[in-house]
Write a structure and sequence with these properties.
Length: about 220
C-alpha cells in the first residue's frame, strides 16, 4: 500500500456526476488547487449496503465541510451512468437521492490504481496477456488534500468497515489549526482545545496541565 502523505495527490480527469444529476466528462481535483481543501474518498460499489450509509453521512455534514472551506468528492469503479441512476433512486429504495457532491466514475480502474486502493491487480498469464486478479473495486480509502494539492492524511479500510465522518472533520480541524498557529495537535485533540509547541518544554507543559485536569 502506497503512502501518499506529503506527496502531490495523483492527477486524473474522469467522468463524474455533479450536483446530483449532471454528468461532467472531464472532472478533476485540479480545479480546487489554491482554493479549497479536498476530502477525496473511495467506496467499493453503487447499490450496496455500507456504501450508501457513508455517502449519505457525508452529505448530512456537508455544511460542516463547507464551513471549513472543504469540498467532498467520492469515487468508485462504477460508471457515470450507474452513479447517475443511483443518485436518482430515493433513499428509502436503496438509493442516494439528495447527495450533491461529486461522484467520480473510475470505470477504467486507473484512479484506484493511482491511489493504490484497488482490491485487485493485473497480472500476466502464461501467454503474457494481462489478466485481472482479485476484485475490481476500491477499498474504503480516504485522502485529505490541502489547498496546495498535497495529501496530508490518508486512511484505508477494508470493505466491511465504514468510516467516521466526525473523525474526518476532526482531521480537517487539526490540519487547519496547525497551519494557522504553527502548533501541533496531541492525541484526541478537538477543535477549541489547546495545541502544543513542538519542544520538550511544550510537551512537558501539556502533560502537566493534562495531569492537573485529571485530578
Amino acid at each position: 500500500m502506497s503512502v501518499l502523505v506529503g506527496k502531490k495527490a495523483p492527477v486524473f480527469w474522469a467522468p463524474a456526476v455533479i450536483n446530483g444529476s449532471e454528468i461532467e466528462e472531464n472532472f478533476s481535483l485540479n480545479q480546487y488547487v489554491g482554493k479549497k481543501y479536498v476530502v477525496f474518498f473511495f467506496y467499493p460499489a453503487d447499490f450496496t449496503f455500507v456504501c450508501p450509509t457513508e455517502i449519505i453521512a457525508f452529505q448530512d455534514k456537508i455544511a460542516e465541510f463547507e464551513k471549513r472551506n472543504t469540498v467532498v468528492v467520492g469515487a468508485s469503479t462504477d460508471s457515470a451512468t450507474t452513479h447517475w441512476k443511483w443518485l436518482q433512486t430515493p433513499q428509502n429504495e436503496g438509493g442516494i437521492k439528495g447527495v450533491t457532491y461529486p461522484l467520480v466514475a473510475d470505470h477504467a480502474l486507473t484512479i484506484s490504481m493511482q491511489y493504490d486502493v484497488l482490491a485487485g491487480k493485473y497480472e500476466a498469464d502464461e501467454f503474457g496477456n494481462p489478466v485481472f486478479k482479485g476484485s475490481p473495486e476500491a477499498y474504503r480509502g480516504l485522502f485529505l488534500i490541502d489547498k496546495e494539492g498535497i495529501v496530508r492524511h490518508q486512511i484505508v479500510n477494508d470493505m466491511p468497515l465504514g468510516r467516521s465522518v466526525d473523525e474526518v472533520l476532526r482531521m480537517i480541524d487539526a490540519l487547519q489549526f496547525t497551519e494557522k498557529y504553527g502548533e501541533v495537535c496531541p492525541a484526541n485533540w478537538h477543535k477549541g482545545e489547546k495545541g502544543l509547541t513542538p519542544t520538550h518544554e511544550g510537551i512537558a507543559s501539556y502533560l502537566s496541565e493534562k495531569e492537573k485536569k485529571g485530578k
